[in-house]
Fold:
Amino acid sequence: MSARPVPVPRPNAGGAPRPVPRPGEDGGNRGPPPNARPPPVGRPAPQPTYEQESYEGEYNDGGNDYNQNYEGGYEEAPPVHQNRVPPPAPSHVTPYGGRVPPPAPAPAPAPVKLNNRQDHHGIPFASETEATSAFKHEGFKPIEQNNAPIQRKEGMVKQGDEKIKLKNRIKNYLANDGPKLVFIILWVLGNAAVFGERYYYYYFKRPDVFDILGHGGSLARGSGAALKLNSALMFLTMLRNIISFLRATFLNSFLPLDKNIVFHRYIGWAIAFWTAVHVVSHGHNFENIENYKGNPANLVSIGQSVPPPTARSIWFTSIPGSTGHVILFAMVLMFTTAVKSVRGPMFNLFWYLHHFFIVYIVVTSFHGFAAALEPPTFWYWIVGPVFLYIIERIIRLVRGNQETILQCAVGHPSKVIELQLKKSRFNYKPGQYLFLNCPYIAGQEWHPFTITSAPEESFISVHIRVVGDWTGDLWNFMNKEKKLGVIQEDLLKAPDGGPIFRIDGPFGAASEDVFKFKTVMLVAGGIGVTPFASILKAIRFRLESGQSSQVTKVYFYWISRDRNAFEWFNDVLAALEGTNLNNFLEINIFLTGQLNKDEIKTVMFNESGVDHITGLRSPTYFGRPDWKNIFAEKSKIHQGSQVGVFFCGPAVLSKQLYKHCKKSTDTANKTVFKYHKENF
Structure:
């Protein structure tokens, strides 16, 4: 067996041996003290193990300071034959990598009194961490100071830091999602409560039912109670006028009113889940009834005849079975057309079939009329919400039938049409939206669109991009020649003699809250710029009229793949640039689409001082925004304050912004990025 080789320093670029750190400078690879005895003759010298590591060191060579970054390592001498005395080490290096010859045998010096702040040379360590790692490497036990070793003190600090970090993470999450989380918890607890109460009742207090149906009876009644609760809540999420009224009250700070459409979907999926539990449980129950051989009195107590009917007859001839099939049919039509892949391109189909909720409500009210186990109570739960919903529809019907004039229609690039409408008694705020109906295309279809005009203007405008069947029909109806610019003016009646348009609203939206913040970030994706057009116009009018505004700084980001899209609101942005008092507005335009060769040359050699893409003084950036660096920069600039982040656009970009808002929020120093997203 050969002895370990002696490490030799790798020469540097100049040919001289590379400087070797003295013991204590290599991050823990320490040799023994200088007074260690040399190894016995005839045995290989013990060699330390050197690991490959990335090392950054600063050296002084003849007065020239320079930094070196290299991969640490050593060249090895040829192996020594077994049982042979190793050759003496060179005069400039020791077996441990030192730069002095091995010391001559001498009496051991007096031991140095060390503490946990010094290495074995008596040289102080730079930090407690270095001291702890060094003593651990050399097998020494650190001396306790203040009755606690260093390791224990560091462990206590780390544990406290973890608790603080966890507490801050919870606070940061609640800053954006506190009301939503509270609502979801209460909703889940409500479902669990009504389900558990019915399950407990039929499991413990109705032994006659459990004797026949088993757990299926308890599951069916519990899921039925949960269906009643969620059916009632479903209507409350669609009371747009009441929700808009509540947004102007203090309750807006505690209730997630902007999430009404999100909760509408959550509740819809909950109804689907409880329906599945209800149907499967009843299938189990019907089989148990058919096969029951026990006390006939128990069958009579649950409303069944003696002898018991077959499961097939209960499924199709009984009141619960027959009405259940109708309810399931209505739900399948509503759910399958409500998914985004169907609702987007075929909104007409979604709109009509979603009104099968009327069938669902009416038939479900009769579903329990057989009163086999308990009197029907479904209508108890829904009578209040349905009454409010009927009042809501009456208000919208009366308001929507008021006369509306099409003052002007303008065709924009990328198949975007702008409608400028006039209507008496239509008071709105920047950032709100309305419902638009064109009876000539579809008499009962109402579609939501953000208002792009400001309250100070004499008309109400909306910008509509062609994305589905209804918007496609509107484009063909208003712009038969497929031209840009003004395409229609001063229209009151459609070709069939009916009203050209009907509008209903306004309704509150998340963008209303812009004026509650001093600093805001407005982020738009494509046609999602519409709510911010109204807000920027309103800010412009307030500045021109000398009115005070809560907003003192606006960061505006507009991302689009089509360069022609920036023409939609160029006049608004240009006017704001011209009256940019105190530099309150920062415009950031991002183009994600490709340019041809001529456009690239024009952009590269443009020296006019005006951006070639938008015509603004603010430059256009090519590619997607680096949100990580953007939020990091804003966190430093606005540390200790609240920043309102408002977004309208695709869901993919919304998720990115929401993630960065949560990461950049730091409640410890009162820096909060409050996220708002448009939901129709």
About this structure: Residues 1-30, 39-86, 89-100, 111-157 have pLDDT under 50 and may be disordered. The CA atoms of residues 352 and 445 lie 8 Å apart. The first strand starts at residue 7 and ends at 8. DSSP finds 19 helices and 17 strands in the chain.
